[in-house]
Design goal:
Length: 132
């Protein structure tokens, strides 16, 4: 029960971190987005930038998190199994791993919807006028 709760808590932290990173990136880079919009970037391309960032954040997190999590989890479980009267048998959770990867990409792109909407609705003329 405790590993499931810990996993859920860490997933919630990851979701919050990705959402915060996307919202902060749009807010901090609003001048850059305004310049790109002024020189011809379309609304669709602007949304694509935010969705690409969300996908890359998820991919990099999965690239490091999944192998480290599997290695650490198996090592800890093996140590526990060796010190108690249990037989160590590593679990085969390929389906669960596939679902976690898919869920990470879907959630990251769902989280990108709100910041991409903000990026598309930036008042380009006001942002660029304030800089001069």
């Amino acid at each position: 029960m405790l590993p499931v709760l810990l996993g859920g808590f860490l997933a919630l932290l990851a979701i919050g971190a990705v959402g915060h990173a996307l919202a902060t990136a749009v807010r901090r880079r609003r001048h850059d987005v305004a310049v790109l919009r002024a020189v011809g970037m379309t609304r669709r391309q602007c949304r694509g930038v935010v969705f690409t960032q969300a996908t890359l954040l998820a991919a990099i997190g999965l690239l490091f998190g999944v192998p480290l999590g599997i290695a650490l989890g198996r090592t800890v479980w093996r140590l526990i199994a060796e010190n108690t009267p249990l037989v160590y048998q590593p679990p085969a959770a390929a389906l669960a791993l596939l679902l976690v990867v898919l869920a990470a990409f879907v959630l990251a792109n769902l989280l990108a919807a709100w910041p991409s909407r903000r990026a598309v609705r930036l008042p380009v003329n006001q942002i660029l006028r304030a800089e001069s």
